[in-house]
Amino acid sequence: MSRTAQLKSTAAVLEPRTLNEALEMRARAPDAMPLAGGTDVMVSLEAGVIDPPRFLNLWRLDALRKIEDTPAGGVRIGALCTYTSLGRSDLVLRHASVLIEAARTVGATQIQNRGTLGGNIVNASPAGDTLPVLLALDAVFELSSAERGARLVAAADFFLGYRQTALLPDELLIAIHLPARNADDHTHYRKVGTRLAQAISKVVLGARLRVVDGQVVEARIAWGSVGPVPMRSPSVEAALLGVPIDVDAEAKVAQDIRPIDDIRSTADYRQRVAENVLRSFLRSVVQTRS
Prior knowledge:
Elements: H1 3-10, E1 12-14, H2 19-28, E2 33-35, H3 41-46, E3 54-57, E4 67-69, E5 75-78, H4 83-87, H5 90-103, H6 109-114, H7 117-123, H8 131-136, E6 140-145, E7 149-154, H9 155-158, E8 159-161, E9 164-165, E10 172-178, E11 185-192, E12 203-212, E13 215-224, E14 231-232, H10 234-240, H11 267-289
């Protein structure tokens, strides 16, 4: 029997039917790997990269699939929402159409039908397609445990290191909160890969500029695949604030990102592409407002 087959046959699967059950199981078995859509976990399992003693299967928890308005005028997205369900949601379209753009670049249709937004977040890959968008939108993650209840963590504070997050051993990610849309916001998503679809990202840009009376009053520039974590670009953001849009602000990108050479690309390529896609976005905003 192969090592992979042994893993499949010996790893126990916990099957909660409610969120409360899931949180209780999580508290009792922190070594159980949460399983949502499984599109990343199954690949790692087949490759022998992971060897969990058991899984905590969350797929039955329909309570984590809701998409609903919040009292503050934003939207709350359940962690088990698939990329397909995001794309079909009128609420997400009204609040964050840029997130739908990102969701539509994740894998093929089969992956979009099964993969979940919460799984993409907790997997915490530096190349996670939706993660720069969530940073740009100032998303807040709702984490919960059986003992302490729910707490909110800003996306900017969630990714601590390579595949390391602020999620505690007894917690589950249960929802993603997006603030109310502002009419003065310009949002943008750009993924650069080897091909137009079904490719792992070489560079991802998620961006949001709020422009009032010709000046930038809020800037969020976020990146994927250019460092150990999905990251904001503070030097670029600072250069953009309080002035008319500076289409040359891409010169600041090098101060913020940390690209590497790997099997998919080179550090130099990622650096140049990041500057180019940011410049293109800034120019598009200027043209839209002129």
